[in-house]
Structure formats: structure tokens, C-alpha cells
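User: Here's a protein and a ligand (adenosine-5'-triphosphate). What would the complex look like?
Assistant: Let me lay out the input and then the predicted complex.
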Amino acid sequence: MELLHVKAPAKINLFLRISGKRSDGYHDLYTLMCPLALYDTLTLSAGGKGIVVVCDHPGVPEDASNLAARSANLFLKTAFAGNSLPISGLTIHIDKKIPVGAGLGGGSSDAAAVLMALNDYFGQPLSTQALMALGTRIGADVPFFVRGAPALATGIGDRLEPFPHLTPWTALLVYPNEVVSTAWVYKNLNLRLTKDEKKLSKFHFDGRLFKLDEHLVNDLEPVTERAFPVIKAIKRLLLAHGAGGAMMSGSGSTVFGLFADHERAISVCTALRDNQQNKNWTLYVADLLI
Ligand code: ATP
């Protein structure tokens, strides 16, 4: 196979509400997700035996558990079920730019990018719907990345409705170099859910008009923030520097500030980077892909 280069974008959650706990242990979500112009780059090439992942990021597994490897495996088995596979082996090289365990969905996005690249390469044997259904088996956010556009998600995050009503903000992302386990956050949320049940019912969203002052809410934020108080400090800092709103994405630890003006986001990014106190943080400026 020729080399295939594909870009896998990050995402932020503009709101993330937990609407209940399911009998299977998962939680029901109501979330507004938007892709961002911050990308991993994947290079796929045929050859060798089996699926090989190469990634020099220490937090990313290079074995069969890598989400990109799992999706390649699942795609090939599904698209060529009953037939011999068209390739004996596949190497996936991941140039990791999206921070890992950061609430930006990097692993899920890599998985979706592989599904779409292989499907295109082999002449689209599967429909987008079928790719999304495969993606759900890898992770709840994968179908969102197969769509690749802002969406309201319900269920475990896999039932999607397009959301074409967002303003073209620029996000300033601050990753405090704290790796957060999504499973840990949900486990600790369970303990809080009963206390917060009343608060959960207060959210009113008409499904169309997203208001920064009202709707920028993340039910996972208090849980992660208790373990990583730096999250609150970053939010304050972003707001003090003129962000229209600031919040943690997904289960954290990345915090984003939204700016109407791209240049302003860049100058705040430079100012925060120059401050020696913030030297453990990694900052990114990325436009929302609306
Ligand atoms: P989410 O917002 O969906 O919870 P996240 O940004 O918090 O995602 P990821 O960066 O997607 O988290 O990675 C979560 C875990 O998945 C990591 O611990 C990592 O070891 C594992 N993983 C497997 N494959 C990948 C991949 N291709 N890229 C990044 N992480 C991967």
C-alpha cells in the first residue's frame, strides 16, 4: 500500500452533563462536542505481518491495545469478513501532538482516522453509519470523530445530532501535564451524584442557542478539580486574561479558554508561556472546527 497520511483532530466538550447512571455501569451523558484544529498525524503503510504501531510518546501503547490498532483490526475483519485480507500487515505511525489522558479525545480520534482512511483506501466497502457503529465498539467518542463536526451527543456519548450553530471561537488550551484517568473520574463521580442530583436538573438548553455564561458546564470538573486544584487556577487565569469563558474538557486535565479574537488568544498564550511559574504546562491555540 502507498503511504497514507491522515490528520486526527482533538475535541473539546462545550458542556458535559451527566444525566444518570445506567445498569451496565456506564453513565448517560448530554454533551456538546466540537473538533479543534489541533491534530495527531497518522501514517499508514502496508507490509510485514500483523498490525504494528509506532509512536514515540511514552503514554501511548505500541501493542494491540492501541486504539488505532484496534480499529484497523476491527475494520479489516468486518470489511473483509469471510474473504482473505487484502494485506498481510499494516504499520501505523502516530505523530502525537494531542496530549494524552487530557480530555481531548486523542486516542478516539486516532481510531476514527484509521477507520476512515482504510475505508477510503479500500473503495468504501462500509457506509459512514457502519463505520460509526464499528467506532462505538472501540470507544464512545469514536463515532463523533467519524462525523468530524460539532455535535450534541446523548447515550454514552455515541448518539449524535449535528450542531451547526456555534460561533467561530479560538480555544487557548492549557494542559497542566497531569494525566487523568477517565475511569477514575467516573468512579469518583458516583459518590457525588446523589448529592448533586438537584443541581443537575437546573440546566436549560434549547438545543440551538449555546450561551457561554449559562451553558459552559462540566459535571466532571468538580471531581477532577478536587484532585488537581491547578485546574481552578488555570480557569481563573484564562478569565483574567479576557477569555469569554473557561472550562475543563471531558474528564480533564486540559482547561480551555474561548476567545472571539484569534490574535488575542495567541498573545495570551505567549504571555502565559513566558511566565516561568507556568513552565510545566503545555499551551496550544486552536480554532474550533465549526
Ligand atoms: P477522552 O477525552 O476520550 O477521555 P483522553 O484525551 O482523556 O480521552 P486519550 O489521550 O485518548 O485520553 O488516551 C487515553 C488512554 O488510552 C491513554 O492512557 C493511552 O494509554 C490509551 N491509548 C490507546 N491508544 C491510544 C492512542 N492512539 N492515542 C492516545 N492514547 C491511546
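Summary: Residues 59-61, 66-68, 94, 100-108, 110, 141, 182, 250-251 surround adenosine-5'-triphosphate (CB under 6 Å).
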